[in-house]
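Quarterly update, task 2.4: dTDP-4-keto-6-deoxyglucose-bound model.
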Amino acid sequence: MLVLEKRKIDAQILEFNVMGDERGQLIALEEDMNIPFELKRVFYIYNTVGAIRRGNHANRYSRQILVSTSGSCKIHLDNGVETMEVELDKPNKGLFIANNVWREMYDFSDDCVLMVLSNKLYDPDEYIRDHDVFLEMVKNNLL
Ligand code: T46
C-alpha cells in the first residue's frame, strides 16, 4: 500500500481590515494589498437551497478567496490526505484556497451571500469533479 506523505492543506483564513465610521463599515479588497493573486473574476452564490452541498470539486488552476458577505456557511476542504472545516460568518473573514484542493460548501444560512474572488477566468475544463479521480491524482503525484 502506498503511504502518502502528510501534507498541510494549502488554505488560509484571512482577516480583512474594516474601515468603519459613524456611517457604517467598508472593506476594500485589492490586488497586491490583501488579495495575493491577480484578480480576474468575481462571482457570488446566494439563495442556496436548504441542506444542499455545493462545490464538490477541485480546480486545477484557480486560486480563490471566499467571503461570506452576509450570513454564514461552512467549507469542507480536502487535499486527498487531510480534511478541514472552516466557518465563514463575518464579512471581514476570508478563506484563501489554493488550486488542487477539493472543496464543498454547506450549512448555508438563508441570508448567505458567498462571494468568490478568483485569479482565473471561468473554464469548466479545469474542474476535477470526481472525488475518486482526485484521490488517484493525489496518490500518483499528478497535482
Ligand atoms: C468554486 C466554488 C466555491 C459560470 O458560468 N461562470 C462562473 O464563473 C462560475 C463559477 C459558474 N458558472 C456556471 C457553471 C454552472 O452552470 O454557473 C453554474 C453553477 O456553477 P458551479 O456548479 O460550478 O457552482 P459551485 O457553487 O458548485 O462552485 C463554484 C465554482 O464553480 C467553483 O470554482 O470553487 O463555487
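Highlight for this quarter: The chain has a mean pLDDT of 94.
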